[in-house]
Amino acid sequence: MPGAPAPALGLTGTLALLVSPLVLSAVWVTIWTAIAAQAIAALCGVPLALAELSSLKPLKAVAWFYNWLFQGTPLLMQLIFFWAVLPILGLRLPLIVAGIVALALNEAARMSQIIRAAIIGVDARQFEAARTLGMSSWQIFRLIIVPQALRLMLPPTGNELNYQFKATSLLAAISVVELTRQTLNFADRDPAHPLPYFAVAAFYYFAMSTAWGLVQQRLENRAERRGFAES
Amino acid sequence: MWDWSLFWKQLLERDAIRAAEATISAAIVGQLIGVTLGILLGAVGASRRRWPRRVVDAYVRVFRGTPLLLQILAFYIVPSEYGIQLPVFVAGALALGMNEAAYLSEVVRSGLMSVDRGQREAAQVLGMSSAQVLLWVTLPQAARVMIPPMGNAFNAMLKTTSLLGFISYEELLRHANLVLDTVYRPFEIFAVITVYYLAMTTAWGLVQSRLERYFRVGGSAPVARRRPMPRLAEV
Amino acid sequence: MDDDAPLLRIQKVSKWYGSHQVLCDVSLDLARREVLVILGPSGSGKSTLLRAIAQLVEIDSGSIFLEGEMLGFRDEGRRKLPAHRIDAQRRETGMVFQSFNLFAHLTALENITLAPRRVLKQTRGEAEATAIQLLERVGLREKAGSYPNQLSGGQQQRVAIARAMAMNPKVLLFDEPTSALDPETIREVLDIMVDLAHRGVTMIVVTHETSFAREVAHRVAFMEHGRILEVAPARAFFDSPNHPRSAAFLGQIL
User: In this predicted model, what pLDDT tens digit does every residue of A175-187 receive, in sequence order?
Assistant: First the structure.
């Protein structure tokens, strides 16, 4: 190690950092893990929501317990737990998969509430109208409730993805090199001047949520044009 | 296999209790900072002054647009560049509180704006200063809509204190990790801290519902709760 | 102080909302113990005038004096007074709103005691003693512990009058105090106002209740399009209005 500390990154250094392959690949990890976790969570949320809405007491109880457990304890703890028990269970999963599963299972609890609210949000008269047309329960669910509930779910689910971009930062704890871990690695290597690294990370997190915000706006506008105003 | 005696021993371990206390104290201090700052920022945000309002907007954007973990690390690491080393607890509670303030300021702002303008005018006409109007008329009325999200924020806060382990604050999760280094029994050890976390969040849930009932004075209608609450200050 | 000098002097007051002028060079004097009723069609600027006196809206030109002190501004140069001076001036004017605006989170008693306690720094005992007297005067002694949403509109407005009186204002402004009330309860509020008038409270009342105007008003002012078109003693105004517009207006509402 040289005796004198390295000089701080100047403006050019910071700009170079902004497009350096290390940073860009970390940003990419953040983006795809967030999307993967959110997608899995949305899928897992469906059976949970249906269980909550079902009239079967044991099903209801299981869903309640799941939500209580996953929302009553920290996400970071769940993440580290999965990471810690995988070897004991003999599962040889890559770290990042364990991380995504933990993020998704935690988020599933949240998604189940969003899905449940969307299903309840569909006007009950729609249900009655479909009944008088002679549709079966399954048909009503598939043809009437699901399409309308999907529209109601769109805005809150979009916000969840935005949250997920930030939640992936916790993957740093199990040394997945996403944006926050990468920032920490930089800061460890250049402990005298950590600020530019944090600024670059903040920039990309902003960019992600802003870009997604714009996409979300367009999606919602399109849903609205088709006659589904968010009430 | 599952080892009950290890579970009970770890559950009642002195260090575990101390770690639980550390979790609670960080959450309480963070919440105090969050609520106080959130009310100040929210009051400015609801005011008609343009520049202060822009500053609040920028603050909210910064703290909501980046991960809490990044903020905690930045609070701990960046000041050292300028020769200031904040103690772990201070950096941690400050980051938690300032992050939450960004979320709560919006709750406070919309709460204050939901109070009928006539209420403020009636108070002004009686000669009350802006601070008095806020303290005695608008804030108490906004409380009804502000209390539930603030309660949820504390629930989230109890959990997000776990991120302080990153800067080596010895709360429950870090405690578990430390124990794990010597006794690799993740099921029992995580079960122990799960019990602590669930006890805290569940107990707070009960307190919260009593608080909400208390603040529903004057027979005003309860706040509709059909939609899931927006996320508050988590991660 | 000279008792003949007007209590309230309004001089050439104008107010614009954007390009729309809601008050045009309004001038008016009010004597101590006088009851003035302002009549006029809706949108004529009556409410804005009251709100200007109470300093809820800032006037664009002209000036208002209460007991010789200019309201809201330091001098004719239109330099604004600091906020705490404006707050102090607002204590001297009381206002009763069309929509009552009782503090929703406080009981009737607390509504009345809040400002005396927090602004005038009275003790709780003092403030409550006065408040109970006032509640008795408006006939609502037994409603002291009720919240606004447990009171009828007429009852709420009576509490609002008591709340304004508790600050002992030099002039009490009524902004259509009975317009939001059911016909059956209008009278109970008017009775309180008549009582106040007989007790010598200086009042400006914006209302459509001509019976009240005939009964207790000393003078009546007629406003239209932001101007005062006529000010006359009440009897003269109702018997033979001078201005053709006020005659037409009376013809419509009587």
Answer: 899 999 999 999 9
